[in-house]
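Why this split exists: single-chain examples teach little about how molecules sit against one another. For that reason, every record in the complexes split bundles all components of an assembly together and asks for one structure covering all of them. Below is a record exactly as it appears in the raw files.
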Amino acid sequence: MWLAVWQAAAMIINQEILLPTPLKTINSLFVLGKTADFYLSVLISLLRIVLGYILGVVFGILGGIASNKWHTFDIIFSPIIKIIKAVPVASFIILALVWFHAKTLPVFIVFLMVLPMIWSSVQTGLDTIDTKYLEMAKIYNLSRFKTFFRIKVPFIMPALVSTALTALGFAWKSGIAAEVICRPENSIGDKLQSAKLTIETPEVFALTAVVALLSILLEAGIKKIAKEYLNDKSK
Amino acid sequence: MINLNNISFAYDKKPIFENFSLNINTGDRICFFGESGCGKTTLLRLILGLEQSQKGEIFTDHKFSVVFQENRLLPFLTVLENITLLGADTKTALYHLQALGISNVAYKKPQELSGGMKRRAAIGRALSVDFDAIILDEPFAGLDENNIALCAEHILKHTENKTVILVSHSKQEAELLKTKIIYL
């Protein structure tokens, strides 16, 4: 239905520069798909975003655990996490342009966006586990390893999965935004910026569709893994 | 043995115990009896090391098992997993579940069980692990008469020569588990 609305809107406006038709966008996607450069750009952008995301998730989990465990660690790092959350992504991108090479900047930006979300989710999850269960673990001399993986992790997992999925969306948005601003070679962001400068609106739409599709596919992949994990835990 | 020597304990400056002493020998069967808020649960928490007394000292060389007032069954584990997680072997766990009439729910999650079944699962768990002393915090709450009798008989059978500490509002329960009442 939305395709029909899009088509109708494009026909009413009747200016390709402002709003291309779905057909024109698909055609543009096919044209892009004929070049090896396009696939290379998609692959490299994907790798950059996934790398930044994984780093954000890993360090977010470790930071959240450390903040829950050591009060001093929390006092030191919680202001930094709050600042990262509050500062607009564009400010970070512009600042990071000075510090990083264009190729690594999107990885850093994605990392920076994902880190505080995962960090807070893990910390809050661990902070709010009912202490009654932890007391039980203490009475029965459960090892720290068992207490963590058999009690704490299952308690925080549903919220963590949900946050990780939300963070993935942010990862894509911030990663592509960083690429658009810093324009590293062989990237979707660079292609988007070039298309914008040459007023190739159908190409902008086509590239945006690719970004959206990749984001949806990755999200579905993570959902599937999480579902299998959670089902396995609930068996 | 469990030895509480001149302990004092207060919650927010409200004294619960002052210079309280109690000696529980191995194999003793006692019941802490008293009104709500008299400090029964606090006493259990002190014995279990979950609270620290502000004065005096507590000594125990017992390995405890506990039937908590609120079951404390982990919602993401099956009944059997809830028991084996604490160190019991599957065979023993299944034996106790069978004896308590809930072997059919061994592979179910706590949220799929009725209140009475959860209570029996909690009792089964406490009996399945290796222990010298068992703490029973209102163990029969929410159970009907038949199940109280069934559980009491099973607990008696498996706590011979063990230290039993019961917390209850019911003298009948204290008698069922052959415990000596200590008024708090």
